[in-house]
């Protein structure tokens, strides 16, 4: 039987990624999952008060249509249920939004796990390379998205002017001088993240890299993830790279043959930009096995960190992650943390968290994965569900205003859609079995009625609107 499609942006549920049979459905585990989700939503709600990114302010609250939202539920093999809303706008901010970041990290972990299994089935080997750089408290994190866009534009214009000069064409030297000065100023203000990106490009180019790719039966491909923390010493930016080879190779041999060569290119590139790396602590290369220190495990832990809330102990060792910084900022509104968070938003916006090798060494193609989806596409992914109901837009607005979104999800996961209908009825909110547009507001009678306008009205009074009807399952 084909499940009903929920439509564009309809739900975040993924029936093909249900909880496995070996994931025991216990009441305690359900409570933990629901508490983590509530924490993510609450942190996003707090973030909306001070974020500098406009799209985050509407993430998860505004609807993608005038009709309303859908509530979908799937039953997992272990008997538990997973519920999610659809038809909501999403920001797709992998670096700043707690809700979108968790969803995207989970998908990236799934993809990397598929790659790891493919390499293992081929009899190959995988290694996790970590490259770091020295930093100081005064180092800037990185150029903002507009600054990076402008620098690319200026570099392109400078390149075109050089071609024109070589061809003997006229060039506006006044404009050229002004733009060259602007480009030099941007280059001088770049931060750790910008230099890191340049250094990695240097690692994966040139004759030495070509020689490295031919070792151990040939490089199947690589995947690179960026990690950032903040401590009293400033921003710490580093990369984790999954390197997959066709042959089985010992960790000691790979470390001796690849580590010093790749770190050497990394270190020289940093020095060209005024940075450096420690020969003793600037790199590490170890064998990666699925679920034990591989890049998929890293993303799984990242998703767990995002979903597990703000943990104080993580601040005392190795600095704070961005999500821990967000937790502190939302909790205290301390001026220093607020400034650091705004710097984080500006520098991270538009950057890729995970980058794959392409061409002959395309790991995704090797593993049979489809074309990579963007962060925004994953966050707003259209999926199916076993069952669904629809909630009209004004009922949803009332739910958001009263912060009841997670209460309805919990009721649905506990008692299915019957529980959802009962919850909506008890709160005087309308629903229907098909599309939100089919729901029609009518006045409720009796003590159970809740006037939506009363929940939404600002102080000073508001004209009361008719409340919403309790629609029957066949409506």
Automatic annotation (TrEMBL):
Region of interest called Disordered, as start-end residue ranges on this chain: 1-25
UniProt biased composition (Basic and acidic residues): 14-23
Top-level division of the source organism's lineage: Bacteria
Entry protein name: Replication protein
Organism: Actinomycetospora aurantiaca
């Amino acid at each position: 039987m084909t499940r009903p499609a929920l439509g564009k942006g309809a739900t975040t549920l993924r029936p093909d990624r249900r909880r496995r049979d070996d994931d025991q459905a216990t009441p305690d585990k359900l409570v933990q999952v629901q508490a983590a989700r509530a924490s993510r939503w609450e942190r996003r709600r707090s973030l909306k008060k001070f974020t500098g990114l406009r799209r985050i302010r509407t993430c998860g609250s505004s609807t993608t249509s005038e009709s309303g939202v859908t509530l979908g539920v799937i039953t997992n093999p272990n008997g538990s249920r997973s519920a999610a809303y659809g038809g909501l706008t999403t920001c797709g901010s992998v670096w700043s939004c707690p809700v979108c970041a968790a969803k995207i990290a989970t998908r990236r972990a799934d993809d990397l796990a598929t790659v790891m299994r493919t390499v293992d089935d081929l009899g190959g080997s995988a290694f996790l390379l970590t490259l770091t750089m020295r930093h100081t408290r005064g180092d800037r994190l990185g150029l903002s998205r507009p600054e990076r866009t402008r620098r690319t534009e200026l570099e392109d214009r400078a390149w075109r002017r050089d071609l024109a000069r070589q061809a003997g064409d006229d060039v506006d030297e006044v404009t050229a001088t002004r733009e060259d000065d602007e480009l030099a100023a941007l280059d001088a203000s770049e931060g750790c993240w910008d230099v890191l990106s340049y250094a990695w490009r240097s690692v994966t180019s040139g004759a030495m890299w070509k020689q490295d790719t031919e070792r151990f039966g040939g490089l199947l491909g690589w995947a690179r993830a960026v990690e950032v923390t903040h401590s009293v010493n400033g921003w710490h930016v580093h990369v984790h790279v999954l390197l997959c080879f066709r042959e089985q190779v010992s960790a000691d041999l790979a470390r001796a043959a690849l580590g010093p060569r790749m770190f050497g290119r990394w270190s020289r590139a940093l020095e060209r930009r005024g940075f450096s790396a420690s020969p003793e602590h600037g790199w590490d290369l170890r064998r990666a096995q699925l679920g034990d220190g591989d890049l998929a495990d890293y993303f799984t832990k990242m998703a767990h960190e995002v979903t597990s809330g703000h943990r104080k102990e993580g601040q005392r060792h190795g600095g704070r992650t961005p999500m821990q910084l967000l937790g502190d900022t939302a909790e205290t509104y301390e001026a220093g943390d607020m400034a650091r968070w705004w710097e984080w938003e500006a520098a991270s916006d538009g950057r890729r968290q995970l980058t794959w090798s392409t061409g002959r060494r395309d790991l995704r193609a090797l593993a049979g994965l489809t074309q990579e989806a963007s962060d925004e596409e994953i966050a707003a992914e259209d999926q199916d569900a076993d069952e669904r109901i629809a909630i009209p837009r004004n009922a949803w607005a009332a739910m958001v205003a009263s912060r009841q979104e997670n209460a309805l999800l919990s009721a649905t996961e506990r008692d299915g859609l019957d529980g959802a209908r009962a919850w909506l009825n008890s709160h005087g909110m309308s629903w229907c079995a098909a599309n939100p547009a089919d729901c029609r507001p009518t006045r409720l009678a009796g003590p159970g009625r809740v006037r939506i306008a009363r929940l939404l009205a600002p102080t000073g009074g508001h004209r009361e609107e008719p409340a919403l009807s309790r629609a029957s399952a066949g409506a």
